[in-house]
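Bench log. Compound arrived from synthesis this morning; before running ITC I wanted a structural hypothesis for how flavin-adenine dinucleotide sits in the protein. Inputs:
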Amino acid sequence: MAQSVDKRVCIIGAGIGGLTSAKYMKEEGINFTVLEATNYVGGTWRYEPKIGTDDYGMPIYTSMYKHLRTNLPKPTMELRDFPAPDSWPSFPSWKLFYEYIKDYARHFDLEKHIKFLHIVTSVRREGNVWKVKHKHIPSGEEFVEEYDFVVVGTGHHSKPNMPNIPGERLFNGTIIHSHDYRVPDAYKDRRVLMIGSGPSGMDISLDVAETAKTLIHSHHSVVNFRTPFPANYIKKPDVKEFNENGAIFVDGTYEDLDDVIYCTGFEYDYPFIDETSGLTLSKRSLTPLHNYMVNIHQPTMVFMGLLVRACLVIAIDAQSQYATALFKGNFTLPTKEKMLEIWQKRVEAIRSKGKPISHIHFVDHYEDQYYEELTRESGIPRVPPVMFKIRIKDTEAKLENFYTFRDYVYTIIDDETFTRKLEKGKCNKLHCEP
Ligand SMILES: Cc1cc2nc3c(=O)[nH]c(=O)nc-3n(C[C@H](O)[C@H](O)[C@H](O)COP(=O)(O)OP(=O)(O)OC[C@H]3O[C@@H](n4cnc5c(N)ncnc54)[C@H](O)[C@@H]3O)c2cc1C
Ligand SMILES: *[C@@H]1O[C@H](CO)[C@@H](O)[C@H](O)[C@H]1NC(C)=O
Ligand SMILES: *[C@@H]1O[C@H](CO)[C@@H](O)[C@H](O)[C@H]1NC(C)=O
Ligand SMILES: *[C@@H]1O[C@H](CO)[C@@H](O)[C@H](O)[C@H]1NC(C)=O
């Protein structure tokens, strides 16, 4: 699509996806607007002690918890053209990373392009344009505007995926989802059941286990976690059902419980798109997308960060640059038929392995190939292979020991190589107050 002066871009969300898109669009002199539902930038990286609803009665967006340190090392958390401060530890706290995002927005002077407290409620394809409806939350005033290109940067770590386990309603203790987990204080000296072993499941388990009486961790991962878990940690299989006082597991064993935390992930949530987008949305997938991001049926709509198992910050940054190059007309996409063919091949590969369609978003060991593909198609600078290599090394370190993987410092030597050394002492194993 060749860009002409009066063409306009709507960027939805001012998290990393929205901000990096805004930065590249601005550099190209593109006419764009960012619509952000909250009154701050940084999306999920802002810690909000409150849970439930905010001052405007809107659901609290962020899932950040107080003791969070990044689960990827510094070199894989840096945005292009904006080096992270030297003073960062190898795995910064949410606080340092959030400051960094705010500094990024300030440095590239992006805030004046953002309409805060504007929530997008509908994006419809009508003729050759996108009709974007948005509401100014405090006043309730509604706007409808036409755009030529839409960047969806609304994230996917906000709407809890609830497992619906039998007997849940009978259980007399507390049940929350990790979206509402903030601090371990309420779990002191209690018997806590944690369900799930994704990044949050492991991290929050250890956070809670520091003060809980017993931490019962239920999950069905076949991964060999070699972490030396503390004496108050008990591993259990899936929960069969709850009763008033506790849970019965699928192996027939039973545990008394005071509290339950579901670390069962999030649902993809795009309430503003409809059938005119041509997309199919389920809790765990959005299809069909080219390169994990371009709406194949309406290629003037792109999605940021719909990737699982990747250096998300770096991948999103590259996607933003790709989206900008696409809008700018620097390259043309393959034909719709070709994009569908490529996508269909991936679907078939997933089906033949008996995996669910949600795996369409798993980049994992294709991560480096993905960066190569983005560059080959669009001409944007390539994300160097060393990033993927660092992530693989970091993943191994996590399996080895969840308490110590953040003691490693990773230094990039060149596009292909890095060094790693052990450096203790800067932070507590789990927390890192700046
Ligand atoms: C607890 C936690 C820890 C994480 N740790 C790491 C880590 O260590 N390393 C890593 O690389 N990644 C991590 N991530 C992943 C993280 O999601 C990404 O790093 C990145 O923040 C995603 O940015 P985003 O812009 O796609 O989405 P978000 O940061 O989620 O931002 C989306 C923005 O869109 C806005 N929005 C939503 N709906 C609308 C609407 N309808 N209208 C207008 N605005 C809207 C929201 O208010 C929000 O500001 C973590 C995620 C979580 C939840
Ligand atoms: C951007 O587009 C809007 C709507 O067409 C227009 O009012 C505005 O002047 C444009 N801005 C620039 C810098 O071209
Ligand atoms: C439920 O919990 C309350 C206090 O939290 C307690 O007083 C009550 O006895 C409990 N009921 C059952 C059936 O365990
Ligand atoms: C688009 O191409 C021009 C000319 O080669 C280049 O200067 C610019 O950086 C490219 N833009 C993007 C976003 O890749």
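What the model suggests: The chain has three domains: 8-159+266-383, 168-262, 386-422. The first strand starts at residue 8 and ends at 12.
ITC booked for Thursday regardless.
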